[in-house]
Amino acid sequence: MNYYFHIPFCRSKCGYCAFYSEPSPDPGMFDAYLDKLERELDAAPLPPPDTVYLGGGTPTLFDPARLERLFRLIRQKLAPKTGTEISIEANPETLDRGKIRLIRDFANRISLGVQSFSAEHRRTLGRDCTQRALQYAIDLIREAKFPEWNIDLIYAIPGATRRDFFNDLATAARAGATHISCYSLTPEEGARLCDRLQPDEEEAATLWEAIPQQLAPWEFRRYEISNYALPGHECRHNVNVWRGGLLRGFGPAAASFDGALRYAQAASLTEWLAGAPPELDEIPGAARLNEIFAVNLRTTSGWTPHLWSRVPGADGWEARLRLARSAAKETSPEFFDISPGRITLSSSGLLFWNTIAEVLL
Ligand code: SF4
User: Which residues cross the membrane (predicted)?
Assistant: First the structure.
């Protein structure tokens, strides 16, 4: 079982983000959240975790006492074995030495939301983090010797040059990150700066194509459309979820997948605290299989019957082959690489994954 905890609090709202979170929360909200989480964790027996992921929002917005309580609850209820991947997302301006010590005792993977190493481009994105806070956070993470650490970057920011983005990649790699996630700027509808933050899509495609070569000197390799890792440092939580692994989500807006049904908790702290029932996503079995298939095609290892055998209700190689061939006919044969026992997308196929997914789904 893979566990996801959504901690829905942020210091302020970034200009491009419309994902559910509560900006400038008061500590009373933190306590209400933790009390409810404790009740939920007590409510049912939970199988031992394969992975644990604390995302947000900004989990590290909690003060040390509340972070400690959160970690204690998860340890007591899930009893993760040594070596279980435990990830936590962090924003630089919320980290200090005391918190890093607590986090390092609990988690073996940290994901730092940098987005850009340029203060000017972070301002464009509407992210308030000083250069000093960013450097301090990186120093703390390096000193703490996390075996796995990710840096999130955004590219195609208006006003940023290619050289700026390539510098960001090199800075992240030189800092010692083992994993780099790169997302093209995609302002979500309803985001504060949505109108102002429209990326140049052609430039975004050019930058995406250049990433593997830019990261090659440090031996990073692309393993999913937006994710790059040193060999053996892929995010296990994400890989498990992409492959149709079971997911149990806690907190507002957290999604779960029980092997047949997917459901999402209410995207509102107030409703979640009041016990609103989760929203069921009733996709018929065949569509669910196509969805898992399409998501796996985002990865460079693609789809194999071996992975499929763990997905409940999965069909066989012939059925997937037929689907891939008909999608190739409708899009482009150059998008697919089909070899015995494996279906992957070519580099141009990955770039047009959205189009392929529309056909598959
Ligand atoms: S991008 Fe992350 S830190 Fe910024 S508002 Fe959204 S959830 Fe919060």
Answer: none
Phi, psi of 316 (to 5 degrees): -105, -175
Please count the structural domains in the chain. 2
Cβ–ligand 1 distance for 298 under 6 Å, the answer no
Strands (E), 68-147: 85-90, 109-115
Render pLDDT for 84-96 as a digit per residue (tens, 0 to 9). 999 999 999 999 9
pLDDT band at 306 (very low <50, low <70, confident <90, very high): confident
Query: What span, in angstroms and rounded, lies between the C-alpha atoms of 266 and 277?
Result: 7
Instruction: Pick the residue whose CA is nearest to atom 2 on ligand 1.
Output: 57
Q: Whose CA is nearest to atom 6 of ligand 1?
A: 17
Cα(56) to centroid(ligand 1), Å: 7
The ipTM assigned to this model is 0.99
Shared domain check, 209 and 342: no
Q: Is the CB of 16 under 6 A from ligand 1?
A: no
Q: Please state the length of the chain.
A: 361
CA of 20 to the centre of ligand 1 (A): 9
What are the distances in angstroms from CA 145 to CA 42, 60, 151, 177, 310?
A: 33, 18, 15, 10, 34
Chain position carrying tokens 């994902």: 19
Q: Using 50, 70 and 90 to split pLDDT, how confident is the model at 24?
A: confident
User: CA end-to-end span of the chain, whole Å?
Assistant: 26
Q: Does residue 91 line the site of ligand 1, with CB under 6 A?
A: yes
Whichever domain contains 115, its CATH number is 3.20.20.70
CB of 60 closer than 6 angstroms to any ligand 1 atom: no
Domain containing residue 37: 2-240
Whether 261 is in a domain gets the answer no
Same domain, 104 and 51: yes
Residues 193 and 53 in one domain: yes
